Give the backbone structure.
Amino acid sequence: MSRDPIVVVGGFMSWPWRYTSLARALREVSGAPVYVVPMTPLDWIMGAFRGFGQLVFAIGRTVDRALLETGAERVALVGHSAGGIACRVYIGGDQPYGGRRYSGHRRVSRLVTLGCPHVVADRRGLATIAEINRLFPGALHKTAGIDYVSVVGVAVDGSKSFRARRRYERVTHDGRVSGDGVIPVSCAFLPGSERIMLDGVFHHVGLGRWYGSDPETVALWWYGESPGRTPLAEDGSAR
């Protein structure tokens, strides 16, 4: 696997320090330098008013730094939760978003999303994601060489947990499904990407073992075939 530097983009209203353990474990597993985009809750609040384009500049600055310091030509992006949506805007395409055309795809070799709400209900509060799906559908640059991987934990059944069901119904109509405690499996797979489900992995550390808890968990989604990792074909069936 490539040793391209890795840039981690945190989730909605998160602080960069929350990704310290993930960055450390990812550095150990991959052998590559890891950078965390310094986005704060204030950046996300501004992004809520101005669109995800506001967040792309922070991603771009960190990508520039990673390439400058390592001499690499491309980076691998790891986006947690809504951070994965921001990564897709940075990668961009032919269509402009918010009056700008983004072309980060020229600097990205891989996009891994962790518990990211790619496929969401048709609802006013989710209109931003719907617009991004329209402008930058699926694994848009897969044929150009970008490796797309969608990862989601299978830890809580919404039909058995009222709290999980309520969280799932923020992004889907029926929350009586399985997911990572925040994002249901059905929402987390970007069309055209490699699809991975992780047994017993939660959305964030506050719920339990999460995507960045330790090197063993990170290895399940970053490198090779491992117990506890279920790769899926594009139709959702196990390989």
